[in-house]
Design goal:
It comes from Vagococcus bubulae. This protein is mainly α. The chain is built from 20 helices and 2 strands. It has one domain.
Length: about 400
Amino acid sequence: MDGKQEDVVSLTEENNPLLRKEITKGTFICIAFVVLIAVYFGSVMGVGVMFSVIMKTAHDLLLNTCFYIMGVAVLAGAVSSVFSEFGVTALLNKLISPIMKPLFGLPGASALGAVTCFFSDNPAIVLIAKDPGYAKYFKKYQWATMINFGTTFGMGIIITGGILGIQSGKYANSVIVGLICAIIGGVVSNRLLMRKTKKIYGTEEGVSDEYLDAKTEQTPAGYRKVRDGSPFQRGLNATFDGGKAGVDLGLGIIPGILIFTTLVMMLTNGPSIVDGQAIYQGVAYEGTGLLPYLCEKISFILTPLFGFANPEVLGLPLTSLGACGASIAGAKSLADQGLLNGHDMAVYFAIAYCWAGFLSSHASMADAMKTRSILTYAMFSHFIGGLVAGLVANYAYMLIF
C-alpha cells in the first residue's frame, strides 16, 4: 500500500509542478526571512514603534498616494480608450513604425505593441503577440523578445502622468530626458535578448500555431473595431470603459504600493528629529536609514554611474523592479520632502520606466507566451537595460541642463 501511495505522490508532483509537500525547506527559509526582518527593525526601532510605523505608513500611503495614483490611472485609462476608439492609437502606430527596425530589430507592426503597452501595462503585449494576425509579421526569434519589448513601454502613461502631477509639473524636463533614455535602455535589453533568441530559434523560423491564440478575433488589415452608436455615444462609452479599467489597475497596484513602499521607506528614512535629537516616535515614514548607509559605502561606484545627489533616491528604482506604482509613491514622498532634484528624477524615471515592475510580470508573461526557456536571460537582459537607461540619463541631463 505504501508503495502505491509513493507512486501516486510521485505521479502527482510530476504532472503538476505547482504541488509541493506540506512542509519543505522553503517553509523554514520563509520563517527565517520574516524573523530576520522583524528582529532587525525591532532591534533598531523597538517592537512597538516598528508596528506603529508599519501601520501608519501604510495608512498614509493608502490615503494620500494610492488614491492619487488611482485618479491618474482612471484619467489615463479614459484617454487611452478614447484614443483607441477614434484611431489616434492607430495614427501613433503609423508614425512610430518606421523606427522599429533600426532601433529594436523588429518589424513595423511592433509599434502597435509599444503604443498599447504605453497606454496600459506590461502584460498587454501578450494579448497582442498571441494574435495570429499580428504574429505573422515576425520571425520567431523576434517574436520571443516581446516580453522585454512590452516591458520597456508598459505603464508609460501611468508613470508619466504620476510624475508630471508632482508639484504642478516641476519635473517635466526630467520626464522628457528619462523617457528617451528609458527607450535607449529598452533597445539594449531587446538587442541583448535577441542575440540569445537567434541562437535558440534561428533566423528563418516563423511563429507556429502552438504559441498563438487562434480564437482571437481577426480584424482586416487597415481597419479597426469600434463601438456601436453615434460618435458621441462611442466617445462616452470609451471614456467610461477606460475609466473602469483605470479603477481596476488602481486597485491592482495598492498591495504593491503598501508592501514595497512601506518596506523601502523604512529602510530609507531615519528617525524623527525633535529639538535636534534623533527620536523614534512611531509616526509614518520613520525608518532605520539602512539604504543610505549602504549607498555611502559604495558611493564611489554609484556616483559616477548615476550621480544621485541624495542616496535615498536609490530605493526608488529598486522598488520599481517589483512595483512601478510603488516607486511613484516613493518619488512623490521624496519630492515633497525636497530630497529629489531634477537630475535625480530624470535618472530614476529612466530606470523605473524601463524596468516598470518586470520582476512581478516577466515570469507570467513568458509562461503565457510559452517562452519560459529564455526567461532567465530575458530578465538579466532587461536588468542591464535599466542600468544603461540610468547611466545615459545621468550624463544626458548634465549635458543638457
